[in-house]
Structure prediction request, 434 residues.
Amino acid sequence: MKWLTGNTAEILSALSEENKLTLEDNQQVEEQVQKIIQQVNENGDQALRAYSKKFDQVELQDLSISQETIDIGYQRVEKGVIEALEAAKENIVSYHEKQKQYDFMDTERPGVLRGQLVLPLARVGVYVPGGTAAYPSSVLMNVLPAKIAGVEEIIMITPPSVTGIPDVILAAAKIAGVDKIFQVGGAQGIAALALGTETIPKVDKIVGPGNIYVATAKKQVFGLVGIDMIAGPSEIGILADKDANPVYIAADLLSQAEHDTLARAIVVTDSVTLAEQVEKELYRQLETLPRKKIAEKAIEDHGRIIIASSVAEMFLIMNKIAPEHLEVQLNDPISYLHDIKNAGSIFLGEYASEPVGDYFSGTNHVLPTSGTAKFYSPLGVYDFVKYSQVTYYTKDALAQAKDAVALLARKEGLEAHARAVECRFARENNETMS
Prediction:
């Protein structure tokens, strides 16, 4: 695990060099994805079946998953898992219901009504990755906020498999309230949601994580549809003082490192002694970790221990990193809450372990990565609504405003704008519009 020491300016400079974004796109992936989208646009379901055979080694007759298949999958999942998913759902719903926003109208000026309507999206597509792991928690996190927002129809897609869609994914979809499920994945699945095919309906927005092809496809179809974000590898940042528990810190670092060899695990502390203890404990825990190879490479390549000169400097550094997950393992952690400027999800105290947020607390685990917490937010109910503004003026109210409107319009060289207001009073003033 690499250590970064020195003054704060030197540490920030080193981090900046490490985290420079590559401006050059992966041109090969971009071109492949563009061709896939074009094929889906031209050939619809036929292209989806061809790509399923090519990429997933599955020949499909029916792209849709029947309700009977969903029900059977649900029944096969052990009772304890169903109960845990239901409990997680309860927490996710109770948290996200507080994010709901409502219409407003104001009548501050006589004859003028202004307002805002909060309108749910009509149809949303949720991408659920396939491959070696199944993530039912991500189904709940993506679907339930959309349900709370009032989305009329939720379409879920997930890659086909020779062994079928995992039962636990089908169970999570049933519990969350997905309306339709289709077995199609990759860039072709994103294209199908964005464009629509004979079988898969076009959606208004696509959410959910995926590999580089899925992420690239989401980027390319943005504009045709909305997307949530372009997610990068998982990351965790931990602020810790000399009294923090190195066993807990090491365990939480590994909870993210086991996701992916590209995952980032970072500790910022003002205690060299704690840093040494954390590093020692981390490698001890690694020895018995089932996903040791993945976690070890992530720690070696992207793990960082940063030594700061003070708690204030610790926050300065971490705010520059803007981690996806931020743990504050300091004495009286709640008192530091307003020192945090950039973080996707914040975990306060030694018992708010990051996996609690991944699965159970109710906060969302679809979060901004790679420093984008500086301008992106966690997935929420607000991602599944849009806003329409409302204006109403009486004749008397417009009469008071018309001269200012016309003046500003002409200042911008837009004569028709000015006339559109003035024509409503031309007859009274015995004027003609010319």
User: Anything to note?
Assistant: Residues 79-96 form the longest helix (18 residues). The chain has three domains: 27-227, 232-375, 395-434.
